[in-house]
Amino acid sequence: MSNGQPPYTITPTIIRLISQISEQLGRLAVQEEKQSLRLRRINRIRTIQGSLAIEGNTLSEEQITAILDGKRVMAPPREIQEARNAIKAYEQFETWQAANENHLLNAHQILMAGLIDDVGMYRSGNVGVMNGDVVVHMAPPAGRVNQLMGDLLTWLQSSDQHPLITSSVFHYEFEFIHPFADGNGRMGRLWQTLILSQWNPLLAQLPVESMVHEHQSKYYQAINQSTNQADSAPFIEFMLGVILETIKNTPQVTPQVTPQVKNLLGFLAKQTELQNRNQLQQGLSLKDRKSFRERYLKPALEAGLVELTIPDKPNSRLQQYRLTKLGKMLAETFG
Prior knowledge:
This protein is mostly helical. It has two domains: 12-249, Fic-like fold, CATH 1.10.3290; 259-334, Arc Repressor Mutant, subunit A. Helix content is 59%, strand content 4%. It has 15 helices and four strands. The protein has helices at 12-31, 37-54, 61-68, 77-91, 101-111, 142-158, 163-177, 184-197, 208-214, 216-229, 233-249, 259-269, 277-283, 289-302, 325-334; strands at residues 128-131, 134-138, 306-308, 321-323. The protein has a two-stranded antiparallel ribbon with strand order 1-2. A two-stranded antiparallel sheet has the order 3-4. Strand 1 and strand 2 form a beta hairpin. The chain is elongated. It starts with 11 loop residues before the first helix and ends with a helix. The model has no long low-confidence stretch (mean pLDDT 88).
């Protein structure tokens, strides 16, 4: 960062992605009031699971849901603590201002409580980012952290750049500075989401961290590429691509389904094994094959809620059926 101004280039790809994200968000905004609160909760759980998984936490979405509901979970105590901290942080999410340093330190204190000693304060020692046994990034000396973070937050406060760019630049610069002894990754992702949510609240409800986890190696590659180029454009492009993919792949409104489809989804959600057509009919106590196909199976397939296990041979005698990701999420909202 030179004179408080982070180095970044606005590429044609960045401009195109901003346009596409804005268009997708406009479509979602029209439907926002219809969004299921249960679906928002599911997205929040996916966000927490994704962000923690990037840091090596092995808890599943089901385990994090159980922790959120106050149930006992058999897992390493540190991983449970990480999840509890993340849940608490997101409960306070809307009370923070992104450019407020005290809020940033408070967020770190909550996220890392019980995990490290120096919570809510910048590091006092030098750190390097490791990939296995190799140092891939040596962070600035501890003595410079206060100044660098002060400059970054001042820039964030005064920037008139598009929030999609500003949030990505902040995220990259934050990871470059690595201001804390631990927890920098989850803090950087949390703070980018906070910046974005203050531009468009819909973005607080999207599990972007879950999508970052799916592209974890590319996430680190984008950071390294930006560092090598002394320009955060590669990281901006990566993050905007992930945000766009998340918007496109996350259902924001509970699809309207018939009672018949609802029953089919509910039955499939309870099964531990794949089901063929006869098993589905028997499980739903249905005798009329035509009625089952037209009123239950066909609309569920067309809505993308159920999928074939052998899609290229729909009439195969070995054909079985399972819920899609959307179908699973929707079935949970019925529970």
